[in-house]
Specification:
heterodimer, A: 598 residues, Ubiquitin-like (UB roll), Alpha-Beta Plaits, Rossmann fold, four-stranded parallel sheet, 17 strands, B: 388 residues, alpha/beta, de novo design (two linked rop proteins), five-stranded mixed sheet, 16 helices, binds flavin mononucleotide, binds iron/sulfur cluster, binds FE2/S2 (inorganic) cluster
């Protein structure tokens, strides 16, 4: 933004802001709030909802404050009669084409349209009800992850911009004009039949309930109430730093042990941690990377693909299946921590607990909507059963806690159950972009050299942060004899989060312009902490608070390297053998197949 | 203001010793700023509807510091009741191309595009033949400027300049936020002059005859002459070039069938003038401006049906992106139907007028902003016909 300051007046108060600032932001500086609907801080400006209109002295029409830059000497009125009348009229119009069944709606209480309508006390229809006369009533529930209800859509296009600008997917687009204008998919196909990655980023930015996760709350309650079932639950790393938000706390609060308490209270038979399999993923993936390096560098095996990319983000997996199917061999064969957990729950865990696999119901709490889709994949049944039965989002868990009437704040802290409840700091940081890379480096470096990564306090700062694509390298120094071929090798890594960034990085790989060894990719901005199942709203400030919480959780843990996880060590001893061993191969690894874009 | 009588003019289609390229050759010898000053001096305002002073538009674009600039001719002619651009395109296309080349020279653009309405594709063959010849002639004159034609795909909204750029860029034809204006960031986000077909043809004539001859015609606010598309209840429907400044009464005297009850000036997005206002309403920027469409209705017409048709058109042709226009058009349409069917009482028309006023104030582009013109003028003047 320019250094040049522009002077203007808003509601008779003077303010100076840098050239290029919008009226909306200038007003914010003076603490005048202007309502918005199509505006979102993560996205480009649309200027289509028109609820942010303000009066500009000398201008015949009102101007959209989100889309209009300030100019010298401008005089703005944000709350004149003209503004209020027009704004109210626009809200009335929006409601006239809106199916406002708020009590059933998952956005009830957290809906930008509802807030605005309540603020202006718009309720009974001034205008003719267009919902009844339109055919936009069928809810698309074809996808196991995302549902789309056009009767709640206000056509703000935030989803369209999200899917295009942040995710480079463009599964959603505007079709038709006039009264038939709608947000649709390629050839109006069901969501499950298009390029959608199920990342849920559009849900996070939809101001209404038009886009939502498919909810499995009722099914999970049924299972909990079923005495014949042993219901276990795993919680992903990023959930613990965000769950507090919909329960009334500020972003950045860590509530790991209250969450465990709440889950026990709700009635899960065993409360376990996805972090356990995050550590396991590092053992498998780290070994896979080293194996690939050995095959490529020592054996000269041309069939080995480098760089190797991570595979724990199911939105990313579906993205590459559609976008670069020819690069699928670069993707690690490791399943995501959720699915490793699921596969072990109905084998190892069942054995140890003396339970029958068919009596176990495995639930996971994820910051992610794509994990719902992942759990449904045919590849994810290696235990002989559906490895993960139900996936709930952070938001759904918050709703469950509310439904159970739990006063979250007063809950005592409780520990995860065993087995599969142990974790390390390396697993916790899986929830932030760069975290898998950092965890992998902490372990791989030590395997190869016998000493810790050469970073203070094990904090590999170059891989942290929110830069869209980041590069880092570590020179391997002091290899043990077995790994001597890596002595002095500069291990080159790259990290991308958000699929647009992932696309840019993989394009370079595809074109042979990148010479990395290892790439971490997370489909969502900020990594899982910004996942499509996380509390709404989202913006960079909230995401960075969650990231701070994650790194704080890591530094406070006694164990911070995945290979130090005692339960993981025990698992290898008692059940798996060695990383990449036969059992690992059948339970913890998989292969994906390419898909068409259209 | 002196009273103008209706006067037929013959500048646009006149082609006796019509050699537009000679005008270009002559004009290229002049200084760029001088040409622009001349166009400003002539008082020429855009003929596409909005009426922005053409010379100023050029000046702003010339002043932009950019290696790439564009000239675009808006030949999307989609306003109901307007068919004059088609006539200009088929009879004197060279005048348009010369206008574009003069503009290119004046503002420093090397590329020009003619955005042709999809329904006019039948003109493509002839236009391209003329254009090939013309581009070669321009080259011979030593001017680095090439024109090509882009075909639209039949949406009214793509005539709106920023939607037209989006469409040319291969995107969905949705109007953009303004500012920035096209003179700063138009096609491909580069400084762009976009002018109507007729505007550009007048540029050629002004350069040929001098600004004074043009300026001598019309009124202070509305200089020169303009091409009108006359339709409806008239025995002599067709295209007429008339001096600006006449009243609706004078117009009706010439074109009406003796039983005229209203004239819709400016197409569906224009205003309806009832008989009682004929004498006091000037056709032009001091009264009711028009992009050229003049629709005449006699007493056999139902103004409810007329308004209904217009609203159906807008409900269909709104791009649909902004709430006031997308939903507002449907509400106005369904609203008058409900009043007609007695499902809502006549008082509801007042709510609808307020809605139309909101659309004028809050819509994103000229389409939604202008729906109030026909709506309010017809409802105010023909309320009984709407209700009963
Ligand atoms: C909905 C809408 C449709 C329009 N259609 C046309 C059109 O078909 N042709 C045209 O020249 N201008 C049209 N315009 C006006 C253009 O946006 C623009 O003002 C014009 O092309 C500028 O040229 P001028 O200054 O020579 O009139 C339209 C405007 C709106 C809002
Ligand atoms: S989207 Fe908002 S306004 Fe609409 S039903 Fe849901 S909560 Fe209510
Ligand atoms: S879930 Fe992700 S990929 Fe699918 S439509 Fe939404 S933003 Fe696009
Ligand atoms: S689905 Fe949601 S984000 Fe997308 S246009 Fe509709 S209301 Fe906006
Ligand atoms: S006013 Fe109408 S045509 Fe213009 S942007 Fe809004 S919806 Fe589109
Ligand atoms: S928030 Fe400004 S137009 Fe929607």
């Amino acid at each position: 933004m320019s250094e040049y300051l522009v002077n203007l007046k808003i509601n008779d108060l003077s303010v100076s802001v840098p050239e290029g600032t919008t009226i909306l932001d200038a007003a914010k500086k003076l603490n005048f709030r202007i309502p918005t609907l199509c505006h979102h801080p993560d996205l480009t400006v649309a200027g289509n909802c028109r609820v942010c209109v303000v009066e500009q002295k000398g201008s015949r029409a009102l101007v959209a404050s989100c889309a209009t830059p300030v100019s010298e000497g401008m005089e703005i009125f944000t709350n004149s009669r003209k503004v209020r009348d027009a704004r109210k009229n626009v809200i009335e119009l929006l409601l006239s084409e809106h199916n406002a069944d708020c009590t059933k709606c998952f956005k009830n209480g957290n809906c930008e349209l509802q807030d605005l309508a309540s603020e202006y006390r718009v309720g009974d229809h001034v205008f003719i009800d267009l919902v009844k006369t339109s055919a936009r009533h069928e809810i698309d529930i074809s996808s196991p992850a995302i549902q789309k209800d056009d009767s709640k859509c206000i056509r703000c296009q935030r989803c369209v911009r999200t899917c295009h600008e942040i995710q480079h997917v463009s599964a959603l687009a505007v079709v038709n004009k006039g009264e038939h204008q709608a947000i649709s998919t390629f050839l109006n196909k069901p969501m499950n039949d298009v390029v959608c990655t199920n990342c849920g980023q559009c849900i996070n930015r939809c101001p209404t309930g038009a886009l939502a996760e498919r909810s499995y709350l009722d099914q999970v309650w049924d299972m909990i109430n079923d005495e014949t079932k042993h219901v276990i639950v795993q919680t992903a790393p990023a959930v613990r730093v965000a769950l507090a938000e919909p329960l009334g706390f500020d972003p950045g609060n860590r509530v790991t042990h209250k969450m465990v308490s709440a889950l026990k209270h709700i009635g899960f038979d065993s409360v376990l941690d996805t972090d356990f399999t995050a550590d396991l993923t590092i053992m498998e993936e780290g070994t896979e990377l080293l194996t690939r390096l050995k095959k490529a560098l020592v054996d000269g095996d041309k069939s080995v693909k480098l760089p190797m990319t991570t595979s724990c983000s199911p939105g990313w997996v579906k993205f590459i299946e559609h976008t670069y199917p020819s690069l699928l061999d670069n993707v690690s064969t490791c399943k995501s921590p959720q699915q490793m957990f699921g596969a072990l729950a109905k084998t190892y865990y069942a054995q140890k607990k003396g339970l029958k696999a068919q009596d176990i119901v495995s639930v996971s709490i994820m910051p992610c909507t794509a994990k719902k889709y992942e759990a449904d994949r045919p590849e994810m049944r290696d235990s002989g059963y559906k490895d993960v039965d139900y996936v709930l989002t952070t938001r759904e868990l918050a709703m469950m806690i509310k439904q159970a009437g739990i006063d979250f704040e007063s809950l005592p802290d409780m520990e995860y159950d065993r087995i599969m409840g142990d974790s390390t700091g390396a697993a916790v940081i899986f929830g932030a972009t760069g975290g898998v890379m950092e965890a992998a480096l902490r372990t791989a470096y030590e395997i190869v050299t016998g000493s810790e990564v050469p970073f203070k306090n094990l904090d590999i700062l170059p891989v942290r942060g929110f830069e869209g694509v980041r590069e880092a390298s570590v020179t391997i120094d002091g290899c043990t004899p077995e790994w001597s071929f890596l002595e002095g090798v500069e291990l080159k890594c790259a990290i991308a989060h958000g699929l647009e960034n992932a696309y840019q990085l993989m394009k370079a790989v595809y074109e042979g312009k990148a010479n990395y060894h290892f790439i971490e990719i997370m489909a969502c901005p900020g990594g899982c902490l910004g996942g499509g199942g996380q509390p709404i709203p989202t913006n960079e400030e909230i995401r960075s608070k969650r990231a701070q919480a994650i790194y704080a959780e890591d530094s406070g843990l006694p164990l911070r390297k995945s290979h130090d996880n005692p339960e993981v060590q025990q698992l290898y001893k008692e059940f798996l053998g060695a990383p990449l061993g036969h059992k690992s191969h059948t339970l913890l690894h998989t292969h994906y197949k390419g898909r068409k874009r259209y | 203001m002196k009273d103008k009588k209706l006067k037929k003019v013959d500048l646009i289609f006149e082609c006796n010793d019509c050699k537009p390229v000679e005008v270009l050759e002559k004009t290229l010898k002049r200084d760029q700023d001088e040409i622009i000053l001349d166009i400003i001096d002539s008082g020429l305002k855009g003929r596409g509807g909005a009426g922005f002073p053409t010379g100023l538009k050029w000046k702003f674009t010339k002043n932009e510091d950019s290696a790439i600039k564009y000239v675009i001719c808006n030949a999307d002619e989609g306003e109901p009741g307007t068919f004059k651009d088609r006539e200009i395109l088929s009879r004197v296309p060279e005048k348009i191309f010369v206008g574009m080349a003069i503009c290119g020279y004046a503002i420093g653009a090397k590329e020009g595009f003619l955005y042709l309405r999809g329904e006019y594709n039948f003109l493509l063959k002839d236009l391209n033949a003329t254009l090939d010849k013309f581009n070669a002639q321009v080259k011979d004159l030593g001017l680095d400027f090439t024109i090509s034609i882009k075909s639209g795909s039949g949406a009214y909204i793509c005539g709106e300049e920023s939607a037209l750029f989006e469409s040319m860029e291969g995107k969905r034809g949705e109007p953009r936020n303004k500012p920035p204006y096209p003179t700063v960031a138009g096609y491909n986000s580069k400084p762009t002059v976009i002018n109507n077909v007729e505007t550009l043809a007048y540029v050629t004539m002004i350069c040929r005859l001098g600004a004074q001859q043009f300026k001598d015609m019309g009124t202070n606010d509305s200089r020169g002459s303009k091409v009108f598309s006359v339709s409806g209840d008239t025995p002599i429907a067709g295209i007429y070039e008339l001096e600006l400044g006449m009243t609706v009464q004078e117009f009706v005297n010439e074109f009406g069938d003796g039983d005229t009850k209203a004239v819709q000036v400016g197409g569906a997005s224009g205003s309806c003038v009832p008989r009682k206002n004929f004498a006091d309403t000037i056709i032009g920027f001091e009264g009711i401006p028009t992009g050229g469409s003049m629709m005449i209705f006699n007493s056999s017409r139902s103004m409810y049906n007329v308004l209904h048709d217009y609203l159906e058109f807008f409900a269909e042709e709104s791009c649909g992106q902004c709430s006031p226009c997308r939903i507002g058009c449907q509400q106005l349409l369904k609203g008058i139907e409900a009043v007609k069917r007695k499902e809502r009482n006549p008082q509801y028309l007042e709510d609808l007028k307020k809605l139309a006023a909101t659309m004028k104030l809050a819509s994103k582009c000229g389409l939604g902003q202008s729906v109030a013109n026909p709506f309010t003028s017809i409802v105010d003047n023909f309320k009984e016909e709407i209700i009963y």
